[in-house]
Write a structure and sequence with these properties.
Helices cover 35% and strands 11% of the residues. By secondary structure, the chain is an alpha/beta fold. It has a domain at 4-288: Rossmann fold (3-Layer(aba) Sandwich), CATH 3.40.50. Strand 7, helix 10 and strand 8 form a beta-alpha-beta unit. Helix 2 (36-49) packs across helix 13. The radius of gyration is 31 Å and the shape is globular. The protein starts with a helix and ends with a helix.
Length: 413
Protein backbone atom coordinates (compact mmCIF):
# COMPACT_ATOMS: atom_id res chain seq x y z
CA UNK A 1 0.00 0.00 0.00
CA UNK A 2 1.48 3.29 -1.07
CA UNK A 3 1.70 6.48 0.93
CA UNK A 4 -1.44 8.54 0.02
CA UNK A 5 0.41 11.86 0.19
CA UNK A 6 3.01 10.69 -2.32
CA UNK A 7 0.35 9.23 -4.61
CA UNK A 8 -1.52 12.53 -4.57
CA UNK A 9 1.67 14.40 -5.33
CA UNK A 10 2.35 12.12 -8.30
CA UNK A 11 -1.18 12.71 -9.63
CA UNK A 12 -1.06 16.48 -9.29
CA UNK A 13 2.50 16.84 -10.61
CA UNK A 14 2.91 14.33 -13.47
CA UNK A 15 5.61 16.40 -15.13
CA UNK A 16 7.81 16.12 -12.03
CA UNK A 17 8.26 12.37 -12.67
CA UNK A 18 8.23 12.43 -16.45
CA UNK A 19 10.98 10.35 -18.02
CA UNK A 20 12.16 9.24 -14.60
CA UNK A 21 12.27 5.78 -13.06
CA UNK A 22 13.42 4.10 -9.91
CA UNK A 23 17.06 4.06 -8.93
CA UNK A 24 17.73 0.31 -9.12
CA UNK A 25 20.60 -0.90 -6.92
CA UNK A 26 21.96 -4.42 -6.51
CA UNK A 27 23.60 -5.21 -3.16
CA UNK A 28 26.23 -7.72 -4.14
CA UNK A 29 29.06 -9.63 -2.53
CA UNK A 30 29.88 -13.24 -3.34
CA UNK A 31 31.14 -13.65 0.21
CA UNK A 32 28.43 -14.64 2.69
CA UNK A 33 27.80 -13.17 6.13
CA UNK A 34 28.93 -9.64 5.29
CA UNK A 35 25.59 -7.91 5.94
CA UNK A 36 23.85 -7.88 2.54
CA UNK A 37 20.37 -8.79 3.78
CA UNK A 38 20.70 -6.70 6.94
CA UNK A 39 21.75 -3.71 4.86
CA UNK A 40 19.06 -4.27 2.24
CA UNK A 41 16.29 -4.28 4.83
CA UNK A 42 17.50 -1.54 7.16
CA UNK A 43 18.74 0.80 4.44
CA UNK A 44 15.43 0.30 2.64
CA UNK A 45 13.52 1.01 5.85
CA UNK A 46 15.60 4.14 6.47
CA UNK A 47 14.91 5.39 2.93
CA UNK A 48 11.20 4.70 3.45
CA UNK A 49 11.30 6.80 6.63
CA UNK A 50 12.88 9.54 4.51
CA UNK A 51 9.74 9.58 2.31
CA UNK A 52 11.30 7.52 -0.48
CA UNK A 53 9.10 4.89 -2.15
CA UNK A 54 11.11 1.69 -1.79
CA UNK A 55 10.83 -1.82 -3.22
CA UNK A 56 12.97 -4.67 -1.86
CA UNK A 57 13.56 -7.72 -4.06
CA UNK A 58 14.84 -10.91 -2.41
CA UNK A 59 16.83 -13.08 -4.84
CA UNK A 60 18.34 -15.30 -2.15
CA UNK A 61 16.72 -18.77 -1.81
CA UNK A 62 17.22 -18.56 1.96
CA UNK A 63 14.26 -16.12 2.03
CA UNK A 64 15.65 -14.25 5.03
CA UNK A 65 14.02 -11.01 3.97
CA UNK A 66 10.60 -12.50 4.75
CA UNK A 67 11.73 -13.59 8.20
CA UNK A 68 13.43 -10.29 8.97
CA UNK A 69 10.28 -8.30 8.20
CA UNK A 70 8.00 -10.68 10.10
CA UNK A 71 5.81 -11.50 7.09
CA UNK A 72 3.64 -14.60 7.38
CA UNK A 73 4.36 -17.01 4.54
CA UNK A 74 0.68 -17.96 4.39
CA UNK A 75 -0.32 -14.50 3.12
CA UNK A 76 2.21 -14.56 0.28
CA UNK A 77 0.48 -15.53 -2.96
CA UNK A 78 3.40 -15.21 -5.40
CA UNK A 79 7.17 -15.01 -4.96
CA UNK A 80 10.17 -14.16 -7.12
CA UNK A 81 10.28 -17.84 -8.11
CA UNK A 82 6.80 -17.57 -9.66
CA UNK A 83 7.77 -14.29 -11.29
CA UNK A 84 10.72 -15.88 -13.07
CA UNK A 85 9.16 -19.23 -13.97
CA UNK A 86 5.54 -18.37 -14.81
CA UNK A 87 5.12 -16.01 -17.80
CA UNK A 88 1.61 -15.11 -16.61
CA UNK A 89 2.70 -13.75 -13.21
CA UNK A 90 3.36 -10.02 -13.13
CA UNK A 91 5.47 -8.11 -10.63
CA UNK A 92 2.42 -6.22 -9.39
CA UNK A 93 0.81 -9.55 -8.47
CA UNK A 94 3.70 -10.55 -6.22
CA UNK A 95 4.27 -7.28 -4.36
CA UNK A 96 3.61 -7.33 -0.60
CA UNK A 97 3.41 -4.16 1.49
CA UNK A 98 5.59 -4.49 4.62
CA UNK A 99 5.73 -0.95 6.03
CA UNK A 100 4.61 2.52 4.92
CA UNK A 101 6.54 3.37 1.71
CA UNK A 102 8.16 -0.09 1.81
CA UNK A 103 7.08 -2.93 -0.52
CA UNK A 104 8.77 -6.30 -1.03
CA UNK A 105 9.06 -9.07 -3.61
CA UNK A 106 9.73 -12.15 -1.50
CA UNK A 107 11.74 -15.29 -2.15
CA UNK A 108 11.28 -18.94 -1.24
CA UNK A 109 13.39 -22.09 -0.99
CA UNK A 110 12.19 -23.28 -4.41
CA UNK A 111 14.18 -20.45 -5.98
CA UNK A 112 17.28 -22.60 -5.58
CA UNK A 113 15.90 -24.86 -8.33
CA UNK A 114 15.04 -22.06 -10.74
CA UNK A 115 18.41 -22.03 -12.48
CA UNK A 116 18.14 -25.49 -14.14
CA UNK A 117 14.52 -24.75 -15.06
CA UNK A 118 15.57 -21.57 -16.87
CA UNK A 119 18.72 -23.00 -18.45
CA UNK A 120 17.09 -23.50 -21.88
CA UNK A 121 15.54 -20.05 -22.14
CA UNK A 122 17.56 -17.68 -24.34
CA UNK A 123 16.45 -14.61 -22.35
CA UNK A 124 17.13 -16.17 -18.94
CA UNK A 125 19.48 -13.32 -17.88
CA UNK A 126 16.91 -10.61 -18.71
CA UNK A 127 13.74 -12.11 -17.19
CA UNK A 128 13.80 -10.05 -13.98
CA UNK A 129 14.51 -6.83 -15.85
CA UNK A 130 11.57 -7.39 -18.19
CA UNK A 131 9.22 -8.20 -15.29
CA UNK A 132 10.32 -5.20 -13.20
CA UNK A 133 10.14 -2.55 -15.94
CA UNK A 134 6.32 -2.00 -15.79
CA UNK A 135 6.48 -0.95 -12.11
CA UNK A 136 9.61 1.25 -12.19
CA UNK A 137 7.59 4.45 -12.09
CA UNK A 138 5.94 3.41 -8.80
CA UNK A 139 9.16 3.68 -6.79
CA UNK A 140 12.07 5.96 -6.09
CA UNK A 141 14.49 3.19 -5.06
CA UNK A 142 14.60 -0.56 -5.77
CA UNK A 143 17.08 -2.62 -3.75
CA UNK A 144 18.00 -6.10 -5.02
CA UNK A 145 19.29 -8.50 -2.35
CA UNK A 146 21.63 -10.86 -4.24
CA UNK A 147 22.61 -14.37 -3.10
CA UNK A 148 26.23 -15.02 -2.05
CA UNK A 149 27.16 -16.45 -5.44
CA UNK A 150 27.60 -15.41 -9.05
CA UNK A 151 24.88 -17.62 -10.55
CA UNK A 152 21.83 -16.89 -12.67
CA UNK A 153 19.97 -14.99 -9.93
CA UNK A 154 22.91 -12.62 -9.52
CA UNK A 155 23.18 -12.13 -13.29
CA UNK A 156 19.47 -11.26 -13.42
CA UNK A 157 20.02 -8.68 -10.70
CA UNK A 158 23.02 -7.13 -12.50
CA UNK A 159 21.10 -7.02 -15.78
CA UNK A 160 18.23 -5.22 -14.05
CA UNK A 161 20.25 -2.80 -11.92
CA UNK A 162 21.93 0.47 -12.80
CA UNK A 163 24.15 0.58 -9.71
CA UNK A 164 25.94 -1.84 -7.41
CA UNK A 165 26.51 -1.37 -3.68
CA UNK A 166 29.07 -3.71 -2.12
CA UNK A 167 28.49 -4.44 1.60
CA UNK A 168 31.71 -5.70 3.14
CA UNK A 169 33.75 -5.90 6.31
CA UNK A 170 37.08 -4.14 6.62
CA UNK A 171 39.02 -7.44 6.55
CA UNK A 172 41.87 -8.53 4.32
CA UNK A 173 40.03 -11.47 2.71
CA UNK A 174 36.99 -9.29 2.03
CA UNK A 175 39.25 -6.77 0.32
CA UNK A 176 40.59 -9.48 -1.97
CA UNK A 177 37.03 -10.57 -2.76
CA UNK A 178 36.11 -7.06 -3.87
CA UNK A 179 38.73 -7.15 -6.63
CA UNK A 180 37.20 -10.37 -8.00
CA UNK A 181 33.72 -8.87 -7.76
CA UNK A 182 34.79 -5.83 -9.77
CA UNK A 183 36.14 -8.12 -12.48
CA UNK A 184 32.73 -9.83 -12.64
CA UNK A 185 30.93 -6.50 -12.93
CA UNK A 186 33.29 -5.55 -15.75
CA UNK A 187 32.36 -8.72 -17.66
CA UNK A 188 28.64 -8.07 -17.13
CA UNK A 189 29.07 -4.55 -18.48
CA UNK A 190 30.67 -5.91 -21.63
CA UNK A 191 27.95 -8.46 -22.36
CA UNK A 192 24.68 -7.93 -20.48
CA UNK A 193 24.35 -4.41 -19.07
CA UNK A 194 26.75 -1.74 -20.38
CA UNK A 195 25.18 0.93 -18.13
CA UNK A 196 25.98 -0.89 -14.89
CA UNK A 197 28.20 1.00 -12.43
CA UNK A 198 29.68 0.20 -9.02
CA UNK A 199 28.85 3.32 -7.04
CA UNK A 200 29.39 2.54 -3.35
CA UNK A 201 31.11 0.42 -0.70
CA UNK A 202 29.14 -0.02 2.53
CA UNK A 203 31.31 -0.98 5.50
CA UNK A 204 29.34 -3.29 7.80
CA UNK A 205 30.13 -4.52 11.33
CA UNK A 206 32.79 -1.83 11.34
CA UNK A 207 35.33 -1.39 14.13
CA UNK A 208 36.94 1.93 13.36
CA UNK A 209 39.31 1.80 16.34
CA UNK A 210 41.30 -1.15 14.97
CA UNK A 211 44.47 -0.63 12.97
CA UNK A 212 43.39 -3.23 10.41
CA UNK A 213 40.13 -1.43 9.66
CA UNK A 214 41.94 1.88 9.19
CA UNK A 215 44.43 0.31 6.78
CA UNK A 216 41.70 -1.42 4.75
CA UNK A 217 39.69 1.81 4.45
CA UNK A 218 42.80 3.71 3.36
CA UNK A 219 43.56 1.06 0.73
CA UNK A 220 39.99 1.23 -0.60
CA UNK A 221 40.00 5.01 -0.82
CA UNK A 222 43.39 5.05 -2.58
CA UNK A 223 42.25 2.37 -5.04
CA UNK A 224 39.06 4.21 -6.02
CA UNK A 225 40.93 7.51 -6.20
CA UNK A 226 43.21 6.00 -8.85
CA UNK A 227 40.24 4.38 -10.62
CA UNK A 228 38.49 7.76 -10.92
CA UNK A 229 40.92 8.60 -13.74
CA UNK A 230 40.19 5.39 -15.67
CA UNK A 231 37.36 4.25 -17.94
CA UNK A 232 36.06 1.45 -15.73
CA UNK A 233 32.59 0.71 -14.26
CA UNK A 234 33.83 1.61 -10.76
CA UNK A 235 35.40 4.97 -11.67
CA UNK A 236 32.77 6.83 -9.60
CA UNK A 237 32.75 4.40 -6.68
CA UNK A 238 33.34 5.72 -3.17
CA UNK A 239 33.32 4.44 0.39
CA UNK A 240 29.90 5.47 1.66
CA UNK A 241 29.65 7.29 4.96
CA UNK A 242 29.04 6.60 7.71
CA UNK A 243 30.18 2.99 8.15
CA UNK A 244 27.74 0.71 9.97
CA UNK A 245 29.24 0.07 13.39
CA UNK A 246 29.12 -3.39 14.95
CA UNK A 247 25.97 -3.48 17.05
CA UNK A 248 24.28 -6.48 18.66
CA UNK A 249 20.85 -4.91 18.15
CA UNK A 250 21.20 -5.46 14.40
CA UNK A 251 21.61 -9.18 15.03
CA UNK A 252 18.70 -9.34 17.49
CA UNK A 253 16.10 -7.53 15.36
CA UNK A 254 15.47 -10.37 12.82
CA UNK A 255 14.44 -12.79 15.57
CA UNK A 256 11.55 -10.43 16.37
CA UNK A 257 10.59 -9.94 12.70
CA UNK A 258 11.40 -6.23 12.89
CA UNK A 259 13.64 -3.70 11.23
CA UNK A 260 16.17 -1.98 13.43
CA UNK A 261 13.89 1.08 13.54
CA UNK A 262 11.06 -1.04 14.92
CA UNK A 263 13.26 -2.87 17.40
CA UNK A 264 15.70 -0.25 18.70
CA UNK A 265 15.36 3.05 16.80
CA UNK A 266 18.14 4.87 18.70
CA UNK A 267 20.83 2.24 18.86
CA UNK A 268 24.10 2.73 16.99
CA UNK A 269 23.00 0.58 14.06
CA UNK A 270 19.77 2.53 13.56
CA UNK A 271 21.60 5.84 13.75
CA UNK A 272 24.16 4.73 11.18
CA UNK A 273 21.60 3.45 8.69
CA UNK A 274 19.52 6.60 9.12
CA UNK A 275 22.54 8.80 8.44
CA UNK A 276 23.57 6.67 5.46
CA UNK A 277 20.10 6.99 3.93
CA UNK A 278 20.14 10.74 4.45
CA UNK A 279 23.56 11.07 2.80
CA UNK A 280 22.42 8.99 -0.19
CA UNK A 281 19.24 11.01 -0.72
CA UNK A 282 21.16 14.28 -0.57
CA UNK A 283 23.76 12.96 -3.02
CA UNK A 284 21.08 11.72 -5.44
CA UNK A 285 19.35 15.09 -5.39
CA UNK A 286 22.61 16.84 -6.25
CA UNK A 287 23.26 14.42 -9.13
CA UNK A 288 19.73 14.62 -10.53
CA UNK A 289 19.51 18.40 -10.45
CA UNK A 290 23.09 19.75 -10.58
CA UNK A 291 22.00 22.95 -12.30
CA UNK A 292 19.14 23.76 -9.98
CA UNK A 293 19.17 27.34 -8.85
CA UNK A 294 20.32 27.73 -5.30
CA UNK A 295 18.69 30.62 -3.50
CA UNK A 296 21.11 32.15 -1.07
CA UNK A 297 19.48 33.43 2.09
CA UNK A 298 19.65 37.16 2.43
CA UNK A 299 21.91 38.24 5.22
CA UNK A 300 20.20 40.43 7.77
CA UNK A 301 22.01 43.70 8.21
CA UNK A 302 22.15 44.53 11.90
CA UNK A 303 20.83 47.94 12.83
CA UNK A 304 23.36 49.69 15.04
CA UNK A 305 22.17 51.00 18.35
CA UNK A 306 23.03 54.67 18.23
CA UNK A 307 23.68 56.64 21.38
CA UNK A 308 20.97 59.27 21.80
CA UNK A 309 22.24 62.82 21.87
CA UNK A 310 21.80 64.48 25.26
CA UNK A 311 19.07 67.05 25.39
CA UNK A 312 20.00 70.62 26.18
CA UNK A 313 19.21 71.50 29.78
CA UNK A 314 19.49 74.58 31.90
CA UNK A 315 22.76 75.14 33.77
CA UNK A 316 21.11 74.47 37.08
CA UNK A 317 19.95 71.02 35.95
CA UNK A 318 22.05 67.89 36.29
CA UNK A 319 22.70 66.37 32.85
CA UNK A 320 23.67 62.69 32.50
CA UNK A 321 25.74 62.14 29.37
CA UNK A 322 26.06 58.63 27.92
CA UNK A 323 29.69 57.58 27.49
CA UNK A 324 30.86 57.55 23.86
CA UNK A 325 31.68 54.35 21.97
CA UNK A 326 35.13 52.87 22.59
CA UNK A 327 36.36 53.74 19.10
CA UNK A 328 35.12 57.36 19.10
CA UNK A 329 37.14 60.11 20.77
CA UNK A 330 34.85 62.75 22.31
CA UNK A 331 35.61 66.25 21.15
CA UNK A 332 33.37 68.13 23.59
CA UNK A 333 33.31 67.82 27.36
CA UNK A 334 30.32 69.21 29.15
CA UNK A 335 30.90 70.03 32.75
CA UNK A 336 27.93 69.59 35.04
CA UNK A 337 27.35 70.30 38.62
CA UNK A 338 27.17 67.00 40.54
CA UNK A 339 24.24 66.36 42.79
CA UNK A 340 25.41 64.86 46.04
CA UNK A 341 21.85 63.92 47.05
CA UNK A 342 21.14 61.66 44.05
CA UNK A 343 22.73 58.56 42.57
CA UNK A 344 23.86 58.73 38.87
CA UNK A 345 21.40 56.99 36.58
CA UNK A 346 22.45 53.74 34.89
CA UNK A 347 22.54 54.13 31.18
CA UNK A 348 21.83 51.60 28.44
CA UNK A 349 25.49 51.48 27.46
CA UNK A 350 26.48 50.39 30.96
CA UNK A 351 24.02 47.52 30.69
CA UNK A 352 25.40 46.53 27.32
CA UNK A 353 28.95 46.74 28.68
CA UNK A 354 28.05 44.38 31.49
CA UNK A 355 26.65 41.92 29.00
CA UNK A 356 29.98 41.73 27.16
CA UNK A 357 31.64 40.26 30.20
CA UNK A 358 28.71 38.34 31.63
CA UNK A 359 26.84 36.91 28.61
CA UNK A 360 26.08 33.19 29.06
CA UNK A 361 25.79 33.41 32.89
CA UNK A 362 22.03 33.85 32.91
CA UNK A 363 21.48 30.09 33.30
CA UNK A 364 24.06 29.53 35.96
CA UNK A 365 27.18 28.81 33.89
CA UNK A 366 30.53 30.55 33.99
CA UNK A 367 33.31 30.87 31.46
CA UNK A 368 34.01 27.17 31.23
CA UNK A 369 30.66 26.37 29.53
CA UNK A 370 30.61 22.83 30.90
CA UNK A 371 27.00 22.72 32.12
CA UNK A 372 25.48 21.77 28.76
CA UNK A 373 22.54 19.98 30.40
CA UNK A 374 21.28 23.04 32.26
CA UNK A 375 20.45 24.93 29.06
CA UNK A 376 23.00 27.74 29.40
CA UNK A 377 26.54 27.97 28.15
CA UNK A 378 29.53 30.18 28.70
CA UNK A 379 32.00 29.68 25.88
CA UNK A 380 30.66 26.36 24.57
CA UNK A 381 30.07 27.97 21.19
CA UNK A 382 26.69 26.94 19.84
CA UNK A 383 24.23 25.82 22.52
CA UNK A 384 22.94 29.26 23.52
CA UNK A 385 23.68 32.57 21.84
CA UNK A 386 23.44 35.91 23.60
CA UNK A 387 21.45 38.48 21.63
CA UNK A 388 21.66 42.15 22.54
CA UNK A 389 18.33 43.84 22.00
CA UNK A 390 17.78 47.55 21.51
CA UNK A 391 16.23 47.76 24.94
CA UNK A 392 19.57 47.05 26.59
CA UNK A 393 18.71 43.56 27.89
CA UNK A 394 20.24 40.23 26.91
CA UNK A 395 17.81 37.75 25.35
CA UNK A 396 18.85 34.09 25.42
CA UNK A 397 17.83 32.16 22.28
CA UNK A 398 17.92 28.39 22.00
CA UNK A 399 18.90 27.05 18.52
CA UNK A 400 16.96 24.37 16.71
CA UNK A 401 17.35 20.81 17.94
CA UNK A 402 20.52 19.23 16.55
CA UNK A 403 19.45 15.80 15.26
CA UNK A 404 23.00 14.47 15.12
CA UNK A 405 23.67 15.62 18.70
CA UNK A 406 20.44 13.99 19.86
CA UNK A 407 21.42 10.77 18.14
CA UNK A 408 24.85 10.78 19.71
CA UNK A 409 23.36 11.38 23.16
CA UNK A 410 20.84 8.57 22.76
CA UNK A 411 23.54 6.25 21.43
CA UNK A 412 25.78 6.93 24.41
CA UNK A 413 22.90 6.23 26.80
Amino acid sequence: MMNPSILNQAKTSPSSRENTSARTIALLNQKGGVGKTTTTINLGAALALAEQRVLLVDLDPQAHLMLHLGIDEAVVEHTVYDLLIDPEVKAADAIVNARPNLDVLLSEVDLAGAEPELAQRPDRQQILKRKIEPILDRYDVILLDCPPSLGLMTLNALACAREVFVPMQAHFLALQGVSKLLETVGLVCQSVNPDLRVSGIILCMHEAQTTLAKEIVTDLEDFFEQASQQDVPWSQCRVLQPPIRRNIKLAEAPSFGETIFDYSPWCKGAIDYRKLARQLVEHWHRVIAPTAEVVEPKAEVPIPVSTPEPAQAPASTVVSISPPASDVIPTTIVETKPDTNSRPAETMEASVSSQVGESGDSEGTGDSGDSGDSGGSGESGGDVEPVVSTSGTTAMTTPDCDIDAAERTMAND
